[in-house]
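ok so I'm stuck.
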Amino acid sequence: MIRVGIVDFDTSHVVAFTQRINHVDVDSEQWVNGAKVTIGCPGESLLSPERIPGFTQQMQKYGVPLVETPEEIIGRVDAVMIESVDGNVHYDRALPFLEAGIPIFIDKPLACSLEHAKAIANLAKDRNAPIFSSSSLRYAPEVIKTQEAQDKVGKILGAEVCTTATLHPRNPGLFHYGIHGVETLYALMGPGCQSVWATSNDDTDVISGLWHDGRMGTLRGIRKGHSGFGFTTYHEKSIVRTSIDTNFIYREILKEIIKMFETGESPIDISESIEIIAFIEATARSAKNHGSKTEVAYTFEGE
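replied:
not stuck anymore, here's the structure
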């Protein structure tokens, strides 16, 4: 049984993940096996500090012991989940665990700058610490089904994704809620985006990306009117249009997280997560320059 520590309680993920891992206060069809949340650190938050007391109380209700500092978790767990909503603090939060070589999951975004994303990855490599970062939308059943259907309907030649894209200055642009759509786009298209064109106003983001093999993907971030998650994929033999049901996305990503804790192998290469940060930075530069073509500063080239 993998002993898991959770750091930073400013998101509902802390409670939702603990419910599924520890099999408490949630239907059995949501349960995930192989681990137990055995300790937590509520931490601090510049983004949503008002959420910490309530989630702390719920974790105490579930019998999870709490400590005041992240460093106190070291030596008492086999793996750690960094759950801060604020991506700007992820490098500092992850640092002591990476230096200790502890397997770590960093909830989206991996970081809010390419500099921090690379630093996290380099330290993880130096310390041989398994690391994984993702949005739960990447593992939505509809996304997985579409990936697997390529044997029948052909390769994905292009994709259009829509996502809720609420904003917060601590996680600028798509680093906040829009990253769910970016992760979905990358899950469908794979890494290798070379350049982007982005337009943004108070209500909407519209981004087009050109991949290295000539395929194009687009993202629509929604801040006005009915919102939600969905995508259209264009295949060699079919067009697939679907909305995403979020009912089981936490269960599915937790399966991947725990598998990584057990095996030391991340389900996605950290280089892809770094490219996602570079993609988001490029969209911000493009939007600021009136939608001009902007190169993605980091492109994953595979092994």
